[in-house]
Design a protein that fits this description.
The complex is a heterodimer. Helices cover about 40% and strands about 25% of the residues of chain A. Chain A is of the alpha/beta class. Chain A has two domains: about 230 residues, Rossmann fold (3-Layer(aba) Sandwich); about 60 residues, Alpha-Beta Plaits (2-Layer Sandwich). A six-stranded mixed β-sheet of chain A has the order 6-7-8-3-9-10, sandwiched between helices. The longest helix of chain A is centred in the middle third of the chain and has 18 residues. Chain B is an all-alpha fold. Chain B has one domain. A two-stranded antiparallel ribbon of chain B has the order 1-2. The longest helix of chain B is centred in the N-terminal third of the chain and has 30 residues. Classes of the chains: A alpha/beta, B mainly alpha.
Chain lengths: ~325, ~260
Amino acid sequence: MNAIEVRGLVRKFGELTAVKDVTFDVRQGEIFGFLGPNGAGKTTTINILCTLLKPTSGQATVNGFDVIRQRNQVRQSIGLVFQDPSLDEYLTAQENLKFHAFAYNVPDTEQRIEEVLKLVELWERRRNQVRTFSGGMKRRLEIARGLLHHPKVLFLDEPTLGLDPQTRGSIWQHLLEMQKEEAVTIFLTTHYMDEAEHCDRIAIIDYGSIVALDTPEILKAQVGGDIITLEVRDTEAASRELVERYHISPRVDNGLIQFEVEQGSRFIPDFVRGFAQDIRAVSLRSPTLDDVFLKLTGRAIREEEGDSKDMMRTHMRAWRGGRQ
Amino acid sequence: MSMALRGIYIIWYRELLRFVRERSRIVATMAMPLLFLVIFGAGLKNSMGPLAPGVDFLQFMYPGIIAMSVLMTSFMGGMSVVWDREFGFLKEVLVAPLSRSGVALGKTLGGATVAMIQGILLLVLAPIVGADLTPLLVLKLVPLMLLLAVTVSAFGILIASRIQSMQAFPMVMQVVVFPLIFLSGVFFPVNNVPVWLEVLAKINPVTYGVDATRHLFLTLDNGLRVSLFGHTMGTLEDVAIVLAFGAVAVIAAVWSFEKQG
């Protein structure tokens, strides 16, 4: 049995179709990433899978339970870390966890709370009110809480959104460690490419549809070799020469020419010697998921990032939609 | 323990825990009734003279102020659903394997318990205003306060599930809470007033809660007691009316809370 099975999932908010006929499986024990720009439908999908939102059509099961008909079984078997904080800031770390333990009927509460708090290194701060915590500490506490009731699947919606790079790194360290210790399946959404690299498999989602689904390595291999970036005096002439002489179709972005070739490091020496145009700089790098996204959608994911207000609006809309 | 009971208990417990945590909230909700008592009481006591033999304005107002305090606190308790939603904690609650009706009832009872405690705290002032506090009186007062609190707390939840954000909160206070208080006979007897005011006061369920509370403290003649269609209300009749409104409010609150998410 797969941890998550989704078939033909659709969710509409009025005129807007946030999720368009999405189908995928998440295997047990893997880290599965939903990667896409803001507003692509990631949070909507997660909200449907964790029973906060009903799909317009289609089916989904989590741990074998139907997300519409067996909501309570689904809820008992999953852990959740939301995009926005969902802690009671006036309670202590320990009290927040006690609330959760009671709500989920966790046996041996005290011992389990100690376990998860130590896992995220917050045991020393257990008696402090959450409002005194930093953003990273709150996020760690939420991860601990998400794990408290031994869920089989842990959902993380943009787990490191709004955190500084150093804290993001440490959150990931905790996540990977915990995944090993607790043998839990992780489903996460992100719009950070480097974060998606941690996943076993990634679904790239754009405008509510999955445009690719595979391991990061295979996805990157699809790009077709290494990425070469050229800085030249005359971009137009250089582009023309690339098309005519090398049968390469380059992209021009910000005055820089970019194209992919196989075995780039062997390609460059001859190329630089033989190229008729004036080259100012040349660089070579391996493809990243950014390149995959660019190749699949024709846009860079970064350009798609809305400001935080936009995101808030999308999020609020998704959330309110559920209470109709 | 069943899912419903678990929901009721844990939500109720959290409300109490928060009450203990937020001492500023306790001070704030105690300050207002105190201000009313001290300023209105001192300001109007002498110029108004006794309202009935042996009943001065302060003694008349004091039971009403207790009822008002219970009302304010329990309404805020119910309305705190809006806070929970705004600060995200509601999501943690809604996605937990708890029954929605249990959560709504827990919230109602939690807000009501806090309000009842607040009402009991105000009894400390009884000797100062010259009210005669007997154990029997307290024994009758506590369940009455709880009944009023449950009614209003459920009403708060009902309103909270209809408004989208905290921005609407001042409006709710102006349009809902203040009218409920001012038109409830806390500050003046609702019999010798213009007809429109009398009608409004008498369709306000809080009026009967205030009247019942006052009956427990004072022996009043007919002029100061609420009458309905020429019939002077007895304490139990008052209680029956509040109970009826309370039942409707609780059912409506549970229903509207279940509908969300």
